[in-house]
Specification:
The protein has a 5-stranded parallel beta sheet, with helices on both faces. A two-stranded antiparallel ribbon has the order 6-7. It has helices at residues 22-33, 47-54, 83-95, 133-146, 149-160, 162-167, 171-181, 184-189, 193-204; strands at residues 14-18, 37-41, 59-61, 75-78, 100-102, 115-119, 122-126. The longest helix has 14 residues, at 133-146. The protein starts with 13 loop residues before the first strand and ends in a 9-residue tail after the last helix. The protein is built from 9 helices and 7 strands, in the order βαβαββαβββαααααα. It has 3 domains: 14-113, NAD(P)-binding Rossmann-like Domain (Rossmann fold, 3-Layer(aba) Sandwich), CATH 3.40.50; 114-147, Double Stranded RNA Binding Domain, CATH 3.30.160; 149-204.
């Protein structure tokens, strides 16, 4: 099966995690990072999930899974270790037209979650069609070494220039190539803020704010 790659806007949307363990925690953190309103359904929570609940970062229903708990969700992730429960989650979600992911069981999924390299708003997604999570993880580790935090800062610079680029059709591509040719990524990597600003000014004529993490 070939999956259609897509980035979803889930900000302020109800996303449900069924399960209260370590895997559920990882999925919850990713959803929260994207601005989702996360509801966790599980009789018990890991200490980390309990902390998120105490901080009111997630909602929690302390109960066994039931199909009547998932109405109006934007998506559902099943992260339990019980095959019957996971099968029921998948069946219920599909009957209600809600996209569902069952961890490590592609046949029960409407979508699968890629391995991600995240650098601020830059997201590099690696998918193997569910065939080899180990290969996806290996590629992610390679990409994490190749694409450091300098790419996040460079993306922020380009984002700050975007209005000017939109008003001058075609200039964005030229600026991008020229900035790379001038070694902007190495300047950022070396944390030479003054030189970064000077280079951007020379090529684009624009003043930019540069913030290092």
């Amino acid at each position: 099966m070939k999956y259609y790659p897509v980035f979803l806007d889930i900000k302020d949307k109800k996303c449900i995690i069924v399960g209260g363990g370590e895997i559920a925690l990882r999925k919850t953190e990713r959803l929260l990072d994207c601005g989702a309103k996360v509801l966790v359904i599980s009789p018990e929570l890991s200490p980390e999930l309990a902390t998120l609940k105490d901080k009111k970062l997630i909602s929690h229903i302390a109960a066994q899974y039931s199909g009547d708990l998932i109405d109006k969700a934007a998506l559902i992730i099943g992260a339990t270790d019980d095959e019957k429960t996971n099968a029921k989650i998948s069946q219920d979600a599909r009957s209600k037209g809600i996209p569902v992911n069952i961890v490590d069981d592609p046949k029960k999924c409407d979508f699968i979650l890629p391995s991600i390299v995240q650098r601020g708003d830059l997201a590099i997604a690696i998918g193997t069609g569910g065939k080899s999570p180990a290969l996806a993880r290996h590629l992610r580790e390679e990409l994490e070494e190749k694409y450091g935090s300098e790419y996040e800062i460079f993306l922020n610079i380009m984002g700050g220039l975007r209005i000017k680029m939109e008003k001058n059709a075609g200039v964005g591509k030229d600026w991008f190539k020229s900035l790379l040719a001038e070694g902007i990524l190495d300047l950022i990597k070396n944390r030479d803020m003054k030189k970064v600003k000077e280079t951007v000014k020379k090529i684009t004529g624009e003043e930019v704010e540069v913030e290092f993490n």
